[in-house]
């Protein structure tokens, strides 16, 4: 039994929801339902078990186990409908929701890294090809596109593994020679290169990672085996790295005038990120300048025109659950919907806040209702939030790529927290007894 309210599916048994997913000769599920179900079903059943159940329903209702006795005429439109469903395994689908809901999204190719899921996919493709040989070209195209997508993912993760060790390396020496201003004099160009980095990491995020990230073992024992969030973690670490890079560049300049110049430079970069809709880099830069080793440099800040920085801080103010940022994000979404080119469509959300929102949505809504039904109303809400992100990640970065700048941003060493504090004290000596004691202790520890 499936329970509806005002035409919207609200709940149902897992078996009924799976049955609702499988097309027939006369029925094809709503695409918004497909995305919502495939996204959140992993809270109850592993992808390989879901694929097995789908295959069993298909084989049972269409008698595919006796496919040699079937012909393409008796298979009817079911074969075409299955091709449409399996195409969701490929790369992209377009989903139309009501106003303020999902407009387009990515599918779930990463689930097919599980050999059991891939084996079942190949089995159902084989049965469909035997039953109707005219489906073979479309099915082979789906399989090849899926394999290409997984190959691209493997290459990305190998590259991230190599660079993440360097990118996350925090050094305890102030002998570094780093100044991003010398590498890239234009704040606008640096903002564009930061957008390249953001969009690449966003593009390789699987929608299922958002759900799996908050699946506690005690509550979701069924998915502990496949709780993979590697690309989500790479993206979260990038924010911290950028913040430390900003603080490092500022604190390594021994001359007050130069430090003020670097601060003003990063303020301009942050403003350019704001104009582009790159809110994650914007917040990382603001966070870097608000780190204690930077914010305590009162003499340096006195030389800085902070009017633009004050405006940016207001936009990112955490008050009232980031009300100012959420209003700005909504305005950016309206701009994106009416955008005529990729530049106008760029939206890169403040990633940590996005994760926080999804976490509280997951924690605040029960997975199952008292009658044992799956709470599909929660599925719709998760699909709306995550589907928006999947829509944003499809944007191709329209700016010229500067590999030397990108390599610098993701690989140059940055100071550790203690090394930053020491460098800050050497820029402007502490005035309080507590600060003097801390400075002395840091010199003993790091030198």
From TrEMBL:
The keyword Lipid biosynthesis does not apply. SUPFAM superfamilies: Ras GEF. Keywords: Guanine-nucleotide releasing factor. InterPro entries: Ras-like_GEF, Ras-like_Gua-exchang_fac_N, Ras_G-nucl-exch_fac_CS, Ras_GEF_dom_sf, RASGEF_cat_dom, RASGEF_cat_dom_sf. Residues 186-430 form the Ras-GEF domain. Residues 5-151 form the N-terminal Ras-GEF domain. This is Ras-GEF domain-containing family member 1B-A-like. It comes from Priapulus caudatus. The gene is LOC106815853.
């Amino acid at each position: 039994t499936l329970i509806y309210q005002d035409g919207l599916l609200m709940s149902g048994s897992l078996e009924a929801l799976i049955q609702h997913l499988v097309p027939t000769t006369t029925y094809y599920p709503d695409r918004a339902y497909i995305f919502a179900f495939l996204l959140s079903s992993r809270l109850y059943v592993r992808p390989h078990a879901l694929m097995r159940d789908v295959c069993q329903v298909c084989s049972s209702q269409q008698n595919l186990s006796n496919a040699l006795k079937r012909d393409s005429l008796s298979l009817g439109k079911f074969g075409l409908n299955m091709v449409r469903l399996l195409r969701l395994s490929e790369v992209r689908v377009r989903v139309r929701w009501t106003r303020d809901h999902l407009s387009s999204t990515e599918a779930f190719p990463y689930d097919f890294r599980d050999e059991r899921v891939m084996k079942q996919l190949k089995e159902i493709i084989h049965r469909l090809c035997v039953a109707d040989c005219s489906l073979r070209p479309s099915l082979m195209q789906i399989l090849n596109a899926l394999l290409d997508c997984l190959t691209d993912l493997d290459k990305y993760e190998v590259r991230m593994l190599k660079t993440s060790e360097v990118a996350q390396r925090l050094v305890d020496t102030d002998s570094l020679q780093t100044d991003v201003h010398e590498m890239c004099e234009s704040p606008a160009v640096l903002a564009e290169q930061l957008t390249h980095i953001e969009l690449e990491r966003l593009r390789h995020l699987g929608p299922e990672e958002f759900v799996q990230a908050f699946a506690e073992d005690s509550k979701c024992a069924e998915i502990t085996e496949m709780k993979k969030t590697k690309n989500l973690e790479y993206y979260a670490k990038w924010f911290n790295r950028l913040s430390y890079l900003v603080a490092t560049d500022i604190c390594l300049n021994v001359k007050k005038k130069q430090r003020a110049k670097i601060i003003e430079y990063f303020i301009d970069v942050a403003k350019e990120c704001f104009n582009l809709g790159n809110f994650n880099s914007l917040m990382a830069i603001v966070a870097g300048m608000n780190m204690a080793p930077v914010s305590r440099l009162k003499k340096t800040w006195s030389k800085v025109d902070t009017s633009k920085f004050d405006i940016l801080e207001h936009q990112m103010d955490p008050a009232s659950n980031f009300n100012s940022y959420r209003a700005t994000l909504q305005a950016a979404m309206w701009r994106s919907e009416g955008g005529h080119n990729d530049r106008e469509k760029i939206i890169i959300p403040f990633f940590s806040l996005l994760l926080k929102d999804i976490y509280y949505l997951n924690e605040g809504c029960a997975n199952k209702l008292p009658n044992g039904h799956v709470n599909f109303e929660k599925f719709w809400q998760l699909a709306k939030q995550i589907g928006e992100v999947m829509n944003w990640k499809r944007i191709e970065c329209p700016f010229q790529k500067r590999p030397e700048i990108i390599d610098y941003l993701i690989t140059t060493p940055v100071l550790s927290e203690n090394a930053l504090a020491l460098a800050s004290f050497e820029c402007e000596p502490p005035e309080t007894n507590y600060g003097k004691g801390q400075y002395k202790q840091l010199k003993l520890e790091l030198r």
